[in-house]
Amino acid sequence: MPGASSPAAAQGYRSAPAPLDVVLRVNGAEHRLALDARTTLLDALREHLHLTGSKKGCGLGQCGACTVLMDGKRVKSCLNLAALVEGREITTIEGLAQGDQLHPLQAAFIERDAFQCGYCTSGQIMAGVACINEGHANSPEEIREWMSGNLCRCGAYDHIVAAIRDAAAVTGSTRGG
Amino acid sequence: MNIAVIGQPISRVDGRAKVTGRATYAAEFSAPGQAHGVIVRSTVPKGRIGSIDSTKAEATPGVIAVLTHLNAPKLPYRPHKGFTDPDIGERLHVLQDDRINHQGQPIGLVIAETLEQAVHAANLVDVTYAAEPAIVDVGRVDPVRPTMQKTDQGERRSPETRRGDAQDALAAAEVRIDRTYVIPRENHNPIEMHATIAAWNGDQLTLWDKSQWVSNVAEEIASVFGIPAENVQVISPFVGGAFGSGLRTWPHVTLAALGAQVAGRPVKVMLSRREMYYGTGYRPHTVQRVALGAARDGRLTATIQDAYQETSAYEEYSEALTNATRFLHSCPNVYTRHRIAPMNVHTPTYMRAPGEVSNIFALESAMDELAAALEMDPVELRLRNEPERDEFKNLPFSSRSTRECYRAAAERFGWSRRTPEPGSMRDDRLLIGWGMATATYPMNFAPAAAMARLLPDGTAEVMSAASDMGPGTWTSMTQVAADALGLPMERVKFTLGDSRFPKTPPHGGSMTMASVGSAVQAACLKVRDEALARGGANDLAEAMQRVGQPLEASANVKPGGAGKRFSMHAFGAVFAEVAVDPDLGETRVRRIVGAYGAGRIVNPKTTRSQCIGGMIGGIGMALMEHAVVDPRNGRVPNGNLAEYAVPVHADAPPVMDVILVEEEDPHVNPLGVKGVGEIAMVGVAPAITNAIYHATGKRIRELPVTPDKLL
């Protein structure tokens, strides 16, 4: 409920949680941060590293806009505390292109017009890259099923699936689990 | 130079920014030293704040200030009404007194160094209420006559209209149907949550805001704080979806500015997903009775639509719920009535195709029921009632491509293979249904301005205070400008989303292309003419080289008299195939084919995206979307994206076909465009529910059609 007070929260209101020293590995670079223990990976990226390509659409793991790769696997960065992902290799949308050379899925998104507002796009692309790597991009039906954790309110699904098909054809996709 | 850029399927000019994460949305700007604001909200729908104690919150580490009505500065709240604000009533004033007008109303703002600290401290504000009995259950309200009804064009019109005598004609009709259709409250739910960063510099205020109308945000906030509008700059280059939720300037924008003023440093407020159900509007719950009378040959003799919608007790939001009924089909006797049900809720607002999408669900469902009663093909019924002119306004249509839309969509769909009896088409154990509906949305064109600047190097900069919530304004305006200037697109830089740029109407009502596009075209033609004249050359690049200094031209466009001579709307037809599982009651949409006559299409690539997006929106409306309102307290228990179901990838039909029929309309506006953003959603829900009837023989008149309703 909005504005409801939480007894658990009320108990510790006076204590100042000491900031934690956290080292995050993001897009191949190490970042030393002093973070509130409650900071999610998503907020660490957006508020502390100013990597705002990962989007906040719910903070509840429901929309997928915050999807990043962690050690190559897709995760929702809003559901991970930053302090608990130390040492993991995080890849965000900002780390996907090689310099000016877009990742094939990024290029396919532009070509297929696989977005409108662009807000879910980072998450769709990161999830799409993982979907291809997992071998789950063998048919439109399979892509639709394995991409259903990423909401697009503009309704660009048809074009997103086409873009993932295109990129899978370029990067190679094998049937997997 | 003659470069055909209008009508070409050009990829978005902002595409690279969006796929690399470099497009910057409201909450992603970074004002130096910005703090975080989190709103404390009421937990009762009506009454007064008995006590509010922020001691614990203030003692929490990192907290800079806690604002409540007890300590917040009194704000001037000078009168202001934008086009998108309800004419009747007054906006909510925040933190000015102890009154509670709706569940989830802002009653405090906690400002802290970090987001985590602000969220935590907001939970520590202790509030007691003197609650009062509240009306939050739309089923228990007697609807009343609104003061007036606003049409899409913003005209005030009687909420009751009559042509002929519909009651008598209905009583005398050879065939009649008389049914009531219900659509529950729906939320826009853009994936980007609303956010505002406010930064003061003396009496100058900068707002980075999620908005569909930056100039109105500046004017609204200026009125609230009693400062000149030119002191407020609103910046909003990218909008992560909005669908209408960004048309008004909601209380959180004021709170961000107020917080920044008190804290003496910039403050960022980003709503949580849950808060999006308590303060940024929604499509109102509607109840519509539609009665149709017809002769045996299918000709309509009577049409009655008696509709009402929820609104708040403090503002009279009224949408165009009965407009289309008056002209869509030919009928000599038509009665429409529009009423409102005021409740202790926050004010609903425009949501994609406001009015029309609800209106057409009821009307086109009723038409399908009539077709079934007449044992007539649903397309044939509509063709028999195709009007020669707008019978309500008694004006010719500037263009109307319904026949071509029915023909093209039916052919692509394979409609002729449909067997009419419900339950007669199957795929193994699944029940297959084919349904269709007509779509329409008005052509809106409102005054707009743009500025164009030519530089000596032969490039151009064009700007307008427009928005792009996704349709592709950045791209389409660059195309229009390049076309008017006769320059390649890469030499033209169009910029939007800044209130310091020339003013535009709201980015809604499918009017951006018509309005801003016409202004961009006019400004570019003007500056080009001036350059060629002053440079004494036929080639623009050569002329600008000779001029040797920048040239600027501004243009204001406004509708001419076409609206008095013509009835101007886009029209379309939507066909859908569903498969219903008879054991599980689950409906899957397998195919949607939509054909639209929407004037000139500037960019077929982005237009197709708008159209399939509207279809997905319509699938949500038909099968999933429902903001459940707790009848005891006005809370929305499913106020999140897991429980307020929206279509996901797996819900998208394998076949989505968009047909843009050729339509030249010289009357509507200089560009000849009608806009497609809204019509793309109109007609989708009834096409689906009509298909469900065809599959199952069950007529579901209350959306969404969830499995329980089919078992």
Automatic annotation (TrEMBL), chain B:
Does this entry carry the keyword Hydrolase?
no
Q: Which residues form a coiled coil?
A: none
Keywords tagged on the record: Molybdenum, Oxidoreductase
Q: Where is the composition biased (Basic and acidic residues)?
A: 152-166
Annotated Pfam families: Ald_Xan_dh_C (PF01315), MoCoBD_1 (PF02738), MoCoBD_2 (PF20256)
Q: Which domain of life is it from?
A: Bacteria
| Region of interest (Disordered), residue spans | 145-167
- Molecular-function GO terms, alphabetical: iron ion binding; oxidoreductase activity
Q: Give every Aldehyde oxidase/xanthine dehydrogenase a/b hammerhead domain span.
A: 20-133
Q: List the protein's name.
A: Xanthine dehydrogenase family protein molybdopterin-binding subunit
Organism, scientific name: Pseudaminobacter soli
